[in-house]
Write a structure and sequence with these properties.
heterodimer; A: 263 residues; mainly beta; 9-stranded mixed beta sheet; 5-stranded antiparallel beta sheet; 2 helices; 19 strands; 11% helix; B: 789 residues; 22-stranded antiparallel beta barrel; 6 helices; 47 strands; globular
Chain lengths: 263, 789
């Protein structure tokens, strides 16, 4: 009787959900190719990195293409301009360290057109320490092997907007955008990449960026778009501060970096 | 924020003209010799109040009224009226000969049964004036709802109203609904006068309304009387049964997904009645059979309980007590939980003070709360939020004059809002963000007059003044960029100086009979809504947030004009209705892009305000008599929104913008033993925002979007069929065996209607992206057995 009930319920469910996916034709809006200017300036060290590419049609088999002949200029409150040249669309170089409250302007010249954005350095929140904990698993018996999670210990401080990223064994992890706003109510413990699983021997570099408010909004929206949508997310391009139509963002923030090896 | 004034001068002018005309007419008219009668109309077999029964003078059919929400009526009769007819669909008409004994009269109508023969099983006719009075609203009775095949075999009043013109389901199988381009939160849903903030179970696939416990449901789409307020688009007024005051009865049903049982009983030798009705799903009981401990420990159920007590103190005074409690619980092992529940309670006193004055006093309580969690109590992320109301309401109806029925009253609601986000991490549990409790007093005074202007015309003029005051909790300061300016602890408290806002809500309607068959209703109204439900989804879900108006948040203001026509013979089967409307909305809210919804103390800075516009035309053709009954409805409509921060302020289609919307509902009584039913629905695909390209950003491939809602899902259509089988002429020995079997198939031809679209790499052509439509249901069969003791 029990087995018959289970079979009946199972067949009903199967019938209910049978054949519920199919590829369809959609009428989409015409694609407008825009430059994607993704710049990151670590206010603590002055290191600059990023990429400048051009968007492609959604249904095109090709990936977005790097933009050639790009010149990036960063100017701080002292008026000193630091020029970084992009090679094959990749930006890498050094400007100068900047302090809390400093306004830095980024100008990106692409094919004779100038894209400009500016940002103010937010107060920094230094990462106290990292902690490795065994992962106890989800309730359905997965995973079975010993795996671990890494937790950030953050000190007591006023409310901060944080972007938490990680490089694992030299690889920059992109599948999750972790934005986190501290409560300002004391020390905080946050799982890295929302509890991502790490394995013994993993070497993990954790970056905690202290963002100004509008940058935080951009990264939260980007996370929702990249992760397929979540509460508060509406399909749309994250609002940025470039002065001309463009995608991407100029993020200026002090980074706090710590490393740990999973035993 | 600039307030539109488009309709205000028109409203003020119309109100002044009406007041002047009323005063002149009242002064000029001489009542003559009139008789006032009053009483209640009930079901002869159960004692249940009949809401909306017609009471009219047979010598002068235009002089009539209908019973109110408590089954009570008052009527002026002029000299020469010798007979009064009391009639209600599904019941044998009763004729009262005048003069009647002094005091309120109790009219008991006999239900029409098959024993009475086909000659009496006809639809009760209505005059053009009576039909005109019902334009802009729709009343559904349980018998109509029961006949419609629905998802999982449940007879759901909300799913039934979604088949009517001007009303749309928010999503496949969902209990949310749009009315004439309004948002899902702009519908005031009442259960015995108590507001229900989330009328859904099982993520919307069921509503909280147990059909066995419901007496009536009336939906106002336009011409909303001034006694209702607080929502911008519509009012769904659901009334519970009082209970059987004649004999003990029990009935219920057993189905694939849920079962229900209702018990009704007389109390105090028929002076009162008691009803208790419960329902529960049992999908989780099958999980107990699993060998996996985690599955056995998974909770997946909902239940609800309705209870009502009524007592007739004497011919003039009655008291009622209603209660509803329901809960949904989804706990998946240690990874996810979602729990929510509604509870309402109403204590009500009806008083027929005289043949001309009726009063109702209600004390009402309503509580909605939910918990959303990821993880478990040791390590998890939780949100706990809710809204609680305590309300006092007084309504008086004064039958001042044969041509004037005046209603007035007061309503005061004390709202309490709670919202907390917390994180548990072993011994380092932290409350991320807890919004201090906020309390608000929403109060209103209203006055309305139904003026019989001539033999075939009525004017309904009313005004409501509503006010919303924050009386406790912080007032948040926002800077020019709408960011929180300062710490929550430093914010001024509303208790030190209540912050409030309010305004008038004029309501006017003219209804009448252009000819013997043709009725018309023209209405204009303003509605204000001080509670916003903010959601990023169009479907609405239990975790949507209710946000009060405040120093940073303005109320929604909705202005609507509507014209409806109806025609049909006085005693006949077919009627048709045509309607058109235009609606403007101010200060509708939406989350801004990148909103941080998990921060209760900054929510006011995470929303943006905009405007909306909706217009449309509706057609309804209905057959109410004969072996084959049903209706065909069609709506042609547009609905738009605009926000300065979205697409440069350009307007875009609202989630409710389904240009074409059709429903065909047919019920065929093949024989006394069998009824076949079917409904077919079609609507234009939902607006959606699709990606047009890809770009790189810090190693991530990110979709590039164009304008909001510029794309559309594929069109939606499905066919539901059902059959009801009853026992033959020879009853079974056991009472429970005399029930009826119901078989139905939801989506009978298996249309894979798009519920969401996922974009994936093509399997046949790597590198190409394919849009993949994901449907929620294909064929959904259901079987249930309804029994009665």
């Amino acid at each position: 009787m029990t087995r018959r009930l289970a079979l009946f319920f199972g067949w009903t469910t199967a019938l209910l959900l049978a054949g519920c996916e199919q590829v369809i034709e959609l009428d989409t809006q015409p694609h407008e190719a825009l430059p994607s200017i993704a710049l990151r300036l670590d206010a603590a060290s002055g290191m600059v990195f990023g990429s400048v590419t051009r968007s492609v049609d959604f249904y095109a088999p090709a990936n977005p293409t790097p933009v050639q002949n790009v010149v990036v200029t960063l100017t701080g409150p002292d008026g000193v301009a630091h020029t970084v040249v992009a090679d094959l669309g990749l930006v890498s170089g050094e400007a100068a360290p900047y302090a809390e409250g400093d306004r830095v302007t980024a100008e990106v010249e692409i094919d004779g057109e100038l894209y400009r954005a500016s940002e103010v350095v937010a107060p920094a929140l230094a990462l106290d320490s990292l902690e490795v904990r065994p992962f106890e698993g989800f309730g359905f018996g997965f995973p079975a092997d010993s795996v671990y999670q890494i937790f950030c210990h953050l000190p007591s401080a006023p409310v901060r907007n944080l972007l938490i990223e990680a490089i694992v064994n030299g690889e920059y992890l992109t599948e999750t955008v972790q934005c986190f706003k501290t409560s300002g109510d004391g020390p905080t413990v946050v799982p890295v990449l929302w509890g991502r699983i790490f394995e013994p021997g993993d070497v993990v570099d954790v970056f905690v960026w202290s963002l100004p408010e509008n940058s935080y909004d951009f990264w939260v929206t980007l996370g929702a778009v990249v992760d397929g949508g979540g509460p508060g997310s509406v399909p749309g391009n994250p609002l940025n501060h470039w002065n001309r139509p463009a995608l991407g963002h100029f993020t200026l923030a002090p980074a706090s970096i710590r490393s740990i090896t999973v035993p | 924020m600039k307030r539109r004034q488009t309709f205000a001068p028109m409203f003020r002018g119309a109100l002044l003209v009406l007041l002047a005309a009323w005063a002149a007419a009242a002064a000029a008219q001489t009542p003559g010799r009139t008789t006032a009668i009053s009483g209640t109309v009930v079901d002869a077999s159960t004692g249940e109040s009949l809401i909306g029964a017609s009471v009219l003078c047979l010598d002068r059919p235009t002089a009539g009224t209908t019973t109110n929400a408590y089954g009570t009526f008052n009527l002026f009769l002029e000299a020469g009226c010798t007979q009064v007819a009391v009639r209600f669909i599904g019941y044998v008409t009763d004729t009262l000969r005048l003069p009647l004994p002094a005091g309120p009269v109790r009219v008991e109508l006999r239900p029409i049964t098959l024993d009475l023969g086909a000659a009496e099983v006809v639809a009760e006719g209505t005059t053009a004036l009576e039909r005109a009075a019902r334009l802009g609203s729709v009343e559904l009775r349980p018998s109509e709802v029961r006949a419609i095949p629905q998802l999982f075999g449940e007879r759901d009043v909300i799913k039934a109203i979604q088949l009517l013109p001007g009303v749309q389901a928010t999503s496949e199988g969902g209990s949310g609904f749009y009315v004439r381009g309004g948002g899902a939160d702009q519908n005031l849903v009442l259960l015995d006068e108590a507001p229900v903030y989330n009328p859904s179970h099982l993520l919307g696939f069921f509503s909280i309304f147990n059909g066995d416990a419901i007496n009536s449901a009336e939906l106002y789409k336009s011409g909303i009387p001034a006694r209702y307020g607080g929502r911008a688009s519509s009012v769904l007024d659901v009334r519970m049964k009082d209970g059987n005051a004649k004999k003990l009865t029990a009935y219920g049903g057993v189905g694939l997904i849920s079962s229900r049982l209702t018990i009704e009983s007389p109390v105090a030798q028929g002076r009162g009645s008691l009803l208790v009705s419960g329902r529960r799903t049992y999908a989780d009981l099958f999980l107990l059979l699993s060998k996996e401990e985690a599955l056995r420990n998974t909770d997946l159920y909902f239940y609800d309980l309705n209870a009502k007590f009524s007592y007739r103190l004497n011919d003039r005074h009655r008291v009622f007590g209603s209660f509803y409690g329901g809960r949904d619980d989804f706990d998946f092992g240690d990874s996810f939980l979602l729990r929510w529940g509604n509870r309402t309670g109403t204590v009500r006193w009806n008083a027929l003070w005289s043949d001309r004055l009726f009063g109702n006093t209600s004390v009402i309580w309503s509580d909605f709360a939910y918990r959303l969690g990821f993880g478990n109590e040791e390590f998890g992320f939780f949100r706990d939020a809710g809204i609680r109301d305590v309300q006092l309401k007084e309504d008086l109806t004064w039958y001042a004059h044969p041509d004037h029925t005046v209603r007035g009253g007061y309503q005061g609601i004390l709202h309490t809002f709670t919202d907390e986000v917390s994180f548990a991490a072993g011994s380092n549990g932290t409350t991320f963000d807890s919004a201090p409790r906020r309390m608000a007093l929403e109060s209103a005074l209203y006055l309305e007059d139904t003026w019989s202007l001539a033999a075939r015309w009525k004017v309904l003029a009313g005004v409501r003044y509503a006010r919303f005051d924050l009386v406790d909790g912080p007032l948040y300061r926002l800077n020019a960029e709408r960011e929180l300016d300062g710490e929550v602890a430093d914010m001024p408290s509303a208790a030190d100086g209540a912050h409030g806002q309010g305004g008038f809500e004029p309501r006017v309607a003219v209804e009448g009979a252009l000819t013997e068959r043709l009725g018309l209703k023209l209405s204009a109204e303003r509605n204000r809504q001080y509670l916003h439900q903010v959601s990023n989804t169009s479907a609405g879900n239990p975790t949507d947030l209710w946000m009060p108006a405040s120093n940073n948040i303005a109320p929604i203001v909705a202005d609507q004009i509507s014209l409806d026509l109806t025609s049909g013979p006085e005693s006949g089967a077919f009627t048709w209705t045509l309607g058109g409307y235009y609606k403007q909305l101010d200060d509708v809210l939406e989350f801004k892009s990148g909103a941080d919804v998990f921060a209760p103390t900054t929510l006011e800075s995470e929303v943006i305000a905009g405007s909306g516009e909706a217009y449309g035309a509706e057609v309804l053709l209905r057959r109410t008599a004969g072996a084959v009954t049903g209706w065909v409805s069609y709506t042609l409509s547009r609905s738009f929104r605009s926000f300065a921060q979205v697409d440069g302020g350009a307007r875009f289609p609202a989630p409710s913008d389904r240009i074409h919307n059709t429903a065909v509902v047919v019920m065929w009584e093949v024989s006394p033993r069998a009824v076949l039913s079917a409904n077919w629905v079609y609507h234009t695909g939902d607006p959606a925002t699709f990606p047009s390209g890809f770009y790189y950003l810090n190693g991530r491939l990110v979709p590039q979007y164009t304008e909001r809602n510029a794309g559309r899902f594929p069109a939606y259509h499905r066919l539901d069929v059902g059959v009801t089988l009853r026992r033959g002429a020879k009853p079974a020995a056991r009472a429970w065996a005399n029930g009826e079997w119901n078989f139905s198939v939801y989506n009978a031809y298996g249309r894979e209607n798009t519920y969401l679209i996922d974009f994936r790499e093509s399997e046949s052509e790597p590198g190409r992206i394919d849009p993949v439509s994901i449907a929620l249901f294909k064929w959904v069969p259901s079987i249930s057995y309804d029994f009665r003791f």
